[in-house]
Every structure is written in structure tokens, then in C-alpha cells.
Amino acid sequence: MLEQTSTEELIERDIAPCVLTVLDLMAIRTCDWTGTATELKDQIDCEENPSVLSKKLNEFKDFLLDRGVEYRLEAKHANRVIRLEKIKSRDGGDGRDT
Questions:
Q1: What's the pTM?
Q2: What's the rounded mean pLDDT across residues 72-84?
Q3: Which residues of 32-44 are buried (b: 16+ CB within 10 A; e: fewer)?
């Protein structure tokens, strides 16, 4: 018997694993996350180097936004700081599946 694949599953197949891990992190957090790419890499135990992680998050920022997480990269002094903010998803939900 063939198993039907949802559109959501097809989309997530093309998303970098580190981006999905960030979504998992934000799903269990009660507040926003702010820090450097190195700090985020260490927190999610990602094998990507920090600059690649930041690049992937930027590349998939619309995917994150659709799921209730806004990604921003801000310049703070000599560092670039990532801000992940929990928001209502574009479809009006809280970004979580029920």
C-alpha cells in the first residue's frame, strides 16, 4: 500500500535539519531566544559551523515565520546577534500543530 505524503512533509524534506531543530527548540521555550550563532549552535548541538547555521536560518526565514518564529540578525558592537522571537504564525495560529 502506498503511503500518502502530506504537503507539509514534502516541504520539510527540503529544509535544513538545523532549521527544524531550531523550530523544536522554540516549541519548548516560553520566551524568545537571543545570542550568537555559536551559542545557538552549541545549544541545539548542531554540526554546522556558526556562519552556515546563520545562513540557513536566513535562507529559511519565511519557513520559520510561517511556523511562528521570526528570525532576525542584528549587529551589536562587534558581534552579530540572532534573535528568534515567538509570534503568531502567518495563518493566525501560534505556530504549533494541535
A1: 0.77
A2: 90
A3: ebeeebeebbeeb
